[in-house]
TrEMBL record:
An example Gene Ontology biological process: tRNA wobble base 5-methoxycarbonylmethyl-2-thiouridinylation
Span of domain ELP1 three-helical bundle: 102-271
UniProt source species: Cryptococcus amylolentus CBS 6273
Start and end residues of each ELP1 TPR domain: 5-93
Protein name (Swiss-Prot/TrEMBL): Uncharacterized protein
This protein's GO CC annotations: cytosol; elongator holoenzyme complex
InterPro entries xrefs: Elp1 (IPR006849), HB_ELP1 (IPR056169), TPR_ELP1 (IPR056166)
Coiled coil: 112-143
Amino acid sequence: MADFCVAYLLADKPTKALRAYERAHAWRELFSLAKKEGVSEEARKDLVERVTDYLASRGRHLEASRVFVEYAQDVDSAVDTCCRGAEFSEAYRLVSHYDRSDLIEAMIAPGLEEAQETLIEVFEEMEGQLDKEVKRLKELNGIRQKDPDSFYIVERELDLEGVDVATNATTATGISQFTRYTVAPSTMSHLTRFTGQTGVTSATSKKKVKKRATGRRGTVDEWEYLVMSLGRLGTRVEEKSGEAVALLRYLVLASDDHRALAESLQSTIKAFRVKLVNGIDMAWEDRETVLREVLESGGSGLEGGLEKSMGEVKPKVAEWKGLGLLLGA
């Protein structure tokens, strides 16, 4: 697209170049050319509106704020855009630079409240996800104890229609159908010796098992997905906790009411992080045993992904203090 812009300029077609720059979202070049070509004030305001809408919708609030100030001299919209993007340091800078202290009460204060409410909702949503996944993991652990064949996707003889599905794992271990799930846990180094063993000797049976395992609820596949999901949740928690620290610094300085909001946000995050640690501990408590039993069962659970699962490392949720003693905690 940039090449088209240059081509239009070389061909002395500035109007087409302007449209090309806008389609390419090259706002710096767009406004430079617009000024050079003497674009009318009304047309320039339309450009500002479209460009800032695009930038803000992509999370580029600082750039949108700059466009408002530099090309529309609209400090109010610039500060409002910063607040909507939780860019409060820039919002305060603009208020100070343009001597618009009235915008602190009109825009920044409610913006801080809205940002706090949004983060509270985010952590409540994550807590709901955590509760559902922990509950489901407990249900799957119950299935594992009561019906291990179903959990590990073990084909019963009556369902196989004469197809030989003996596996290397079942042949090598020699563990009987009644005792293979009660063998004492082994170490992960012991598990790795089995990595790469095939699940089914018949190509036809392989396809059949794979088809049945795909999207199968109530199995080790669902169990492993949920365990990994808790790890991904931990990554998101760290990201949002970092955002919260930046917000807490402004909340605690804004007013007594905002300080109370800061205390509420910090306590919410700390409580959730403790709950997440407990959930991850529960999920990983028997994971080594489960992976060993995947091999020993001869089932098709985690087919094609067992080696990757055995290489996963238990996620850690670091201690988080927020603003610590600055908020009395």
